Amino acid sequence: MQPIKLTSSVCCMQPIKLTRSVYCMQPIKLRLKDHCVTAVMCQIRTDHDTALIRLSAMQKRTSLFALMFAEDGILLNANQAALRKYGPDCIESDSFHLKDLFVGGCCAEGQAEEIAAYEEAHEACFKLGVESYRHPIPRISNKTGELKWSMMEMWPMTDPITGKPAVLVIVHNITQQKRMELQLAQRHEALQRANQDLEQNRIQLERQTAAIQREKDALQQEARNLAQRLEAIIHDKFIPKSHIDADTPIDKTLNFLHAFIAGEEPSVQSALDIYHVLTESNTDLRQPVGLESQLLKKSSMDTEVGMSMLQLLTGPAAFREGTNPDSEGNKPSPKSLSRQTSMLKGTDRCQQVLISEASISASVTPQLERMLQDADTNWQFDIFAFSEQAEGHALSLLSFYFFQRFDVAEKFGMDPVKLATFVRVIEKGYDPQNPYHNSIHVASVVQMTHLLLHQGGVAKVMTDNQICATYYAALVHDFEHLGVNNDYLIKSFHPLAVMYNDISPLENHHVAAAVRVMLRPECMFFGNLTKDTALFRPVIVNQVLGTDMKKHFDITSRFQTAFKRSAPNSASSSETRGDSAPGTSTGSDTSRQAPATDGIDWDNVKADDKMLVFQMLLKCADIGHLAAAQDTHKRWAYQLEEEFFQQGDREKEIGLPVSPLMDRSNKGGITRSQMGFFSIVGLPMFKAMADVFEGAQPMLDGVMANYRSWEAAAAAADSPT
User: Fold this and answer.
1) Which of 322, 286, 240 is nearest to 550 (CA)?
2) Around 601, how many Cα atoms within 13 Å sit in the side-chain half-sphere?
3) 505-544 burial, b for 16+ CB within 10 Å, e for fewer?
């Protein structure tokens, strides 16, 4: 650049030599006294001014930046620290280049890697327009020979002098940070090695645990086999023997096949016995073989007790061929037929009851609330004390509490007001004049149903729909009960027996009458009648009809066949077979079988078999007073006896033979048959349920305690005074 000479008309100075000056020509106008002249102003910016402007621009970004480079890599400016490090002539001599910051290190691949790093940084800052770019640089210290690390930060900007792209650069010493990273990496590697060692130890421990578990399983299997044998011994020793063979033809056939599969050699006589039973035209495959003969001829119980049990389990004795030749004495009088019509009209005692959900809740006192909480878990809940506190509304309070307790109404979109109305109307449908089949009995059945569901564990194998249906079935299972049994209705040609063709007339009526109540507008608590009843109705119908004792052996036998028997390939099946013991099963060998709770895949159980579970649940709840506290149980027994006496009075009144154990003029009623009822019906059924659902064991314990009480009473009565 040529030097510029400046002169002045006022004074003359020596020409000033300015190196690396910058010219800026700008036209201006000068106004004189009488005219204007045009001139050109030449503004000259020196290197010193340029450096200050660029330094100011660097300071505005941050005081940390040390260097400014142009796009071609030429150093444009440097702060004092950079000048001290790279020399004061690094700017004027153009000897310092951006690339110099990248080379001279100790990269693994040498200069080629350094040049590649420079080109990548240059492209990022000047072409890609990144906000900032960082690049770590390793170097060997000239003084100590140690490895040092620097971090170069590059921030693109515009040169305030030329308006062209430039970049600000600062170099940090990150040696300490790298050393810490190296230490952390070494620690991480050590931790990984430790984790690998721990993983190896874990795998070895798992293998050892698996071996121990296999040994434990083997010992547990051996313990189960021993427990089965011990159970058989205990049953033989402590559970009283019965002279009743409760095996059905199917039970006998399955026992024969089990023995054959287990490698035993069944006798030819046993095969012939099964053959003769199966080929008889009147054989009922689900009723004990020769039950009538066993109860009336071979049993040690007296004849009237045997007749009572036979009538309970099979039907009216007077209608069986050869039982009573006096057929004229069995015809009801015209007076009886008119009485039956009045009884049928009297069944619809339910008046429309408008009741709100709040009125039920408002009637719950603190004492009742404590009792309701006790009903959740107590297998020997005092239903009579609860009924006294509830002032005649034990059934509606308990039922509505359980419906609300488990959000039944909310889950199925039920109208709570209409549900409350329905429950109260159903409660009114139970005749308080019935000593046994009244609303208190049904309340106890609802409570026992609840316990079997949630304490016994049955709810775990049911859907919400099935649980809701089961609560409903328990609530209505004796609705509008007439205080007499089905045999009475059939023998007297009652309209219900005629309507249902002598097939479970009471049970059919309970279901149908309850549905008629539900169809009332004020009681229609279901949101979608068609959809909801389609899901609930099959369970309800099967459960309520299953409470007919005529179906007892059919249901319990099929239940035990489905859930209690050992698999045919069981190694212990031949070792655990023995004689029958009442209170353990309906078959001669099922008392020796292991409970079926282990290994049942409920998801794959057939729907028909699950229905047996639902039926067994309500059957157990229906006679659940057998598991109640001793005083409560005996109170129920004597109330049932009084109801049977009242039926006997009606039978006398209409000219029918008095049913066994229903003549109050004889000494004792059905309480005389308690030992037989427990051993033939109660204990086998409760034992079967507890075997499949272990949570129901407290129920079986209560039944055994009451059986022992009756046994002791019978022994005391028979002993000489």
Assistant:
1) 286
2) 2
3) bbbbbbbbbbeebbeeebbbbbeeeeebbebbeebbbbbb
Is 598 buried (19+), middle (13-18) or exposed (0-12) by CB count in 10 A? exposed
The structure tokens listed for 20 are 């690396």
Tokens representing 9?
């008309």
- Taking residues 267-291, what's their average pLDDT? 70
Q: How confident is the model at residue 542 (pLDDT cuts 50, 70, 90)?
A: very high
206's tokens: 């798992």
CA 708 to chain centre: 38
What angle, 0 to 180 degrees and rounded to 10, lies between the N-to-C axes of helices 416-428 and 394-405?
150
User: Look-up: residue for tokens 């327009």?
Assistant: 129
pTM for the full predicted model: 0.60
- How distant is the alpha carbon of residue 66 from its chain centre? 69
Neighbours of 250 (CB within 10 A): 18
Tokens 């308080």 locate to 432
Instruction: Tell me the three-class secondary structure of 401-421, residue by residue.
Output: HHHHHCCHHHHCCCCHHHHHH
SS3 166: strand
Tokens of 444: 């106890």
Among the ranges given (148-152, 345-349, 427-431), the one the predictor scored with the smallest mean pLDDT = 345-349
Q: What is the CA radius of gyration of the chain?
A: 50
Measured distance CA(518)–CA(422) in Å, rounded: 7
Contact predicate 278/249, CB 8 Å: yes
* Active-site residue, selected from the candidate residues 393, 437, 441, 552: 437
For residue 27, give the H/E element and its range.
strand 22-31
CA gap 509, 518 in Å, rounded: 14
Q: Is 437 a catalytic residue?
A: yes
What is the C-alpha to C-alpha distance for residues 226 and 653, in angstroms, rounded to an integer?
59
* Distance (Å, whole) CA 360 – CA 398: 10
**Across 233-242, 497-506, 604-613, least confident range:** 233-242
How far from each other are the two terminal CA atoms of the chain, in whole angstroms? 148
Q: In what order do the strands lie in the sheet with 165-173?
A: 75-78, 67-70, 165-173, 147-158, 133-140
| E runs forming strands in 103-159 | 133-140, 147-158
The answer to whether 51 and 88 are in contact (CB under 8 A) is: no
Contact 482, 433 (CB under 8 A): no
Output the 3-class SS for 541-562.
Answer: HHHHHCCCHHHHHHHHHHHHHH
Q: Please tell me the least confidently modeled range out of 39-48, 224-233, 512-521, 549-558.
A: 39-48
pLDDT per residue as tens digits for the range 660-692: 888 888 876 666 778 888 888 889 999 999 999
